[in-house]
Amino acid sequence: MPDSEKRVRAFIAVRVSDEIEASLDALIARVRAERDGVAWVRPSNLHLTLKFLGAAVDPAKISQLIGLLHSLAESIAPFEIRVGGIGAFPNFSRPYVIWAGLESEPLVALAAQVDEVAAECGFEREGRRFSPHLTLGRVRNPRLTRDLREQLRAVREREFGVSGVQSMTLYRSELAPGGSIYTALATFPFAAAHLKE
What we know:
Blueprint: H1 3-6, E1 8-14, H2 18-31, E2 38-40, E3 48-55, H3 59-74, E4 79-89, E5 97-103, H4 105-120, E6 133-139, H5 146-154, E7 159-165, E8 167-174, E9 181-189
């Protein structure tokens, strides 16, 4: 298999509002520094992954999954996500991922439903607990400067607001020197009828 095919990945995700993306981008611009050892995420790439499907996914599986995701989306009411708090995995002392926290019970339920639907198509079930977050940066050098660590700790309680979520999207991701390139393969709008409840 050619290297280019091995580097193509697929995932299902939701996005937050443009306003919240802009606020997160402003935060990144404030704390980032030249040669800080962090690959910061561009605003256009900010997303919450509901389900990572893997690399070089079988097109037949994707076709089956698209049909099931359309059916699932028709049963889901649009919902809201609270975006707040800045953290790091595993911690600020030796971080590998810098993230913004997300809070939403419907979001957690949706991730479980998407995992169930994907399993019906032959994708492996998630082995770990769903931890909703938006990745802001991936740390290439875990020895962050003390200045950056202090700036991140200073904003760890910051609130970014509430975002409505109206749909989920199946993306293809290609690794590139300037960062991942995401292409939407299919979007699944949630049931508009539920908005009138």
